[in-house]
Amino acid sequence: MELGRVALSDPGSLLPTGFWAAVAVWLERPQVANKRLCGARTEARGSAFLPRAQTEKGPRRVQGLGLEGRDAGEPGQASPEAEPGLGPRAGRESDVSATDLNSLWDRVSQSLVQDNTEMLAFLSGPALGSQPEAPQLDLILRTVIPKASPHYPLTEPKKELVVQDVSNGSVTFLPLEEDAEGNLEVKMSNVYQLQVHHSEGEWFISVLIFCPERWHSDGIVYPKPSWLGEELLSKLARWAVENRKSEFKSTLSLVSILRYSKMYQELKEKYRDMVWPEVTDPEKFVYEDVAIATYLLILWEEERAERGVTTKQSFVDLGCGNGLLVHILSNEGHPGRGIDVRRRKIWDMYGPQTQLEEGSITPSDKTLFPGVDWLIGNHSDELTPWIPVIAARSSYTCRFFVLPCCFFDFVGRYCRRQSGKTQYREYLDFVLEVGLSCGFHMQEDCLRIPSTKRVCLIGKSRTYLPSAEVWMDEQRTRYLHSRQSHPQSLDGEGHAPSAPQAAAHDAGHQNSHRTIAAGAESMPDGLAAEGRAAPATGLWIPGFCPRAKAERVRNCAALPRDFIDQVVLQVANLLLDGKKLNTKSSEDGSLKTWNEGGSLSLAEVAAELNPETLQRLKRECGGLQTLLRNNHQVFEVLNGRVHIRDWRRELQKEKPPEAKRSLSAEVFKTRICWFFTHHPDGCVLPAACCPFAHGPEELRLSQTSKKQRQAP
After folding, report:
1. Are 44 and 160 in contact (CB under 8 A)?
2. Is the CB of residue 75 less than 8 Å from the CB of residue 24?
3. Which helix (H) or strand (E) holds 136?
């Protein structure tokens, strides 16, 4: 039964290759389409022939997934959209071998020929009889992992045998279950197929299911058939014609997805009810730090297993901010502390077991951490490129984890040098280069956090032997000085590339696995003392400036009030088609017609402002857009366009949460209505409905002002 079919526009001639790239996304990263899934794990891959009535052939070759993973997509080609995302531990999690896949396909083949000819016909499609030879198939055994959530009943991971028939343009998903002897066998329910075909000059993608009456939806791993025919089909159609390759790794490629799903849910339940005294969004920051903590805890858990130790790793979080990540890691048994230049209100709520220190970090021989296992840089700003250096010089066994956000060089802001990459990708490559130049094997992964900057970089081991520490530190010093002398030059320009820089060039974005032996011919005499500390004295390079303790407000709020009012009036005048604004009060508060003006892009608004005004705004974070958003009463900025806010629509929106309603009650009538004073038609709302004061007689003293006056 065909659930749905969609015609594709393919101006880039990407099909049918694009179809297999889209299938690879659904195979390797099903969670991007089905939000109730955590991911999928590939257990084994192989190839075989489709059985015929009298001829049954098992797989010619079957192989398990290697330790480094394996690209998916059209056979013989790497997927442009997705990588396996399974990481080096995927093979260890799987208990399915190549022999198991071989045996499984033998049983499936016999069953198809002897007992399930309808399934065989569904699997082969209408082209089977016209082919002189049985088509070769690609077999994939995968485990689909549901997301652990209290909203859905806990569903166990499900195994599927995926059969790709490239010659016929189809891929079939066969659910598996264990029989009484523990052997995997194909279920007759929940079998579906994706097809791509070309007809009369047009490409189509279809979704079909075998025996609709046997489809049993659990709402998680197996959604309703309508979801397959609508949601999944539309996503596959879009992916198939997208000529886009991701610059980044798949999410959670270095840790167990199943373990992550379970631990994240446990920690989320444990820390979700924290009282949040900061002005930042509690939901974003709590869940983000829970996700980062989950990742680190699993990374460290797997590291202990690899090393055969049980002692939990120690850590220092440099630039710890609100300290929640330190609090979670400490609560979960890891000894550590956080350091930040500015104390936060929430620090006092954690208790004495969470060690947080107020202080600045200036990279030097005085800011080393020789007894610490891991250094953490979670959005650590100006310290981000320094953390690999500090870790390398702290001890040979010190490792690091950084999650870059803002773009800083060793001194000042990072200057772009390659227009062919996004600024974010170029900065990540710079931090990778720093890690490699400091002698680390570098790894990259993508976290599942509510942020656009979610790529983390990890240095777990060294590219050189401990006996080469002093020689290696000389190479680090050369690299630091090269960045200082040529901050905008290309790599190697103006100085000879060091050994670690050569390693960085050779490794690119991939993990580096070569070790610099540092033989006698490459090291000065007498510098090969085992474990000798690096000769770092004083400041490593001049010019570094740690963040100021008191953050300067740069959100346009510190601009003079008359300057802000002037810009607001000028922009409003532009939107109201140049009408002269009435500076007197409107006598009628219940106007039926009201000029809401037009809309202009931010660029069009900026073009009408004088250069001096724009320059003044540019010195603030966000500039013109921030000023307009701050004046929420007057303007609405949507998708880069500016509108006059119509408060009739605001009152028709859904009621806000209780917390926001109480806040609105506190500020009700505490500010003069801008429209009542300046709009040529006055305020669109009657005085009784408007949250702002229609004249000074309606003004109330704000609750915040009362509290401040009552404070001792």
Report:
1. no
2. no
3. strand 136-146
> Residues 107, 109, 111, 114: what is their CA dihedral angle, to the nearest 10 degrees?
-130
Report whether pLDDT(369) > 70: yes
| Length of the chain measured in residues | 712
Looking up tokens 């059985």, which residue turns up?
Answer: 51
328: helix, strand or coil? helix
Whole-number Å distance between alpha carbons of 70 and 87 = 10
> pTM for this structure?
0.65
Q: List pLDDT tens digits, range 586-612.
A: 444 444 578 888 889 988 999 999 988
Give, as one character, the DSSP assignment of residue 616.
H
- Kindly report the three-state secondary structure assignment for every residue of 48-94: EECCCCCCCCCCCEEEECCCCCCCCCCCCCCCCCCCCCCCCCHHHHC
Q: How far apart are CA 335 and CA 325, in angstroms?
A: 12
What confidence tens digit (pLDDT) does each residue in 636-650 have? 998 889 999 988 887
Token code pair at residue 441: 């094997």
Tokens of 297: 């805890």
Return the higher-pLDDT residue of 472 and 681: 472
Q: Which amino acid is at 140?
A: I
Q: What whole-number distance in Å separates Cα of residue 444 and Cα of residue 425?
A: 12
Torsion sign (Cα): 243, 248, 253, 255? negative
* Residue 133: alpha-carbon gap to chain centroid: 46
Both tokens of residue 503? 């390693």
**263: number of Cβ within 10 Å:** 21
Residues 481, 498: Cα–Cα separation, whole Å: 12
Q: The tokens of 64 are what?
A: 């398990």
**Could you give the C-alpha distances from 114 to 118, 137, 138, 178, 304, in angstroms and in order?**
11, 20, 22, 20, 50
- Find the helix or strand (DSSP H, E) in which 554 lies: none
CB count in 10 Å sphere of residue 693:
19
293, 328 in Cβ contact below 8 A? yes
- Backbone region of residue 683 per phi and psi (left: phi > 0; alpha: psi in -120 to 50; beta: other values): beta
Give the dihedral of Cα atoms 63, 66, 72, 74; nearest 10 deg. Answer: -40
Dihedral of CA atoms 28, 34, 36, 38 in degrees, nearest 10, equals: 20
Encoding tokens for residue 299? 């990374």
8 Å CB contact between 84 and 65: yes
592 Cβ contact partners less than 8 Å away, ≥ 6 residues apart = none
Residue 106, CA distances (Å) to 57, 101, 128, 139 in order: 8, 9, 20, 12
Judge contact between 45 and 70, C-beta under 8 A.
yes
**Direct distance between the N- and C-terminal alpha carbons of the chain, in angstroms, rounded to an integer:** 76
**What is the per-residue pLDDT for 578?**
54
